[in-house]
Amino acid sequence: MAGTVFFSVSMSLDGFIAPESPDELMGRQWVKLQSWVFPQRFFRENLHLGTGGEQGRDNDILRETFDRTGATVMGRRMFDAGEPAWPDEAPFHTPVFVVTHGRRDPWERPGGTTFHFVTDGIDAALDAARTAAGNRDVRIAGGARTILQYLNAGLIDEFSIALSPVLFGTGIRLFDGIDDSTVELHQLGAETSPRVTHLRYAVRRR
């Protein structure tokens, strides 16, 4: 049975998930936005940053998201920002399908991550990811424009937002361009921690 297609992102209180400039995708804003992630034990283990770390509900959510994911889809902008920043053992440990216009041979990394470059659209990338994931779920990793394409196409089943207590003022908003005439949300849950608020929604077509 096919798994769920979902996304899971951190977002500022004013709705941004990334800076506008690709040169700043791993910069100051991103560090502020993801500051709840860095102390978590699972994050440290996954990136081989050493032992220790926090083990509360934030940590559990990171681990649960990782464990459910059998394949990942991302846009080329996210890949281009991550390629020089990820360690040799990239943190996905799944097949990753990059939606792009440029052809490139698969890029295999240690630890189970292989990047595949899909040039014939979001549906083809998702079909390949579903096959690779088997009974596990497919995560649409980002960025915002890629997530929005999948949302407006009715291909997202559910999503979670880690709402961080930061304000950006500018950047890329997650839901800019959403087709609200076709997308309907149903809240599945909300949890708070000292660092962030976790919101979960199911997506239905109107």
From TrEMBL:
<protein>
    <submittedName>
        <fullName>Dihydrofolate reductase</fullName>
    </submittedName>
</protein>
<dbReference type="Pfam" id="PF01872">
    <property type="entry name" value="RibD_C"/>
</dbReference>
<feature type="domain" description="Bacterial bifunctional deaminase-reductase C-terminal">
    <location>
        <begin position="4"/>
        <end position="197"/>
    </location>
</feature>
<dbReference type="GO" id="GO:0009231">
    <property type="term" value="P:riboflavin biosynthetic process"/>
</dbReference>
<dbReference type="InterPro" id="IPR024072">
    <property type="entry name" value="DHFR-like_dom_sf"/>
</dbReference>
<dbReference type="InterPro" id="IPR050765">
    <property type="entry name" value="Riboflavin_Biosynth_HTPR"/>
</dbReference>
<dbReference type="GO" id="GO:0008703">
    <property type="term" value="F:5-amino-6-(5-phosphoribosylamino)uracil reductase activity"/>
</dbReference>
<dbReference type="InterPro" id="IPR002734">
    <property type="entry name" value="RibDG_C"/>
</dbReference>
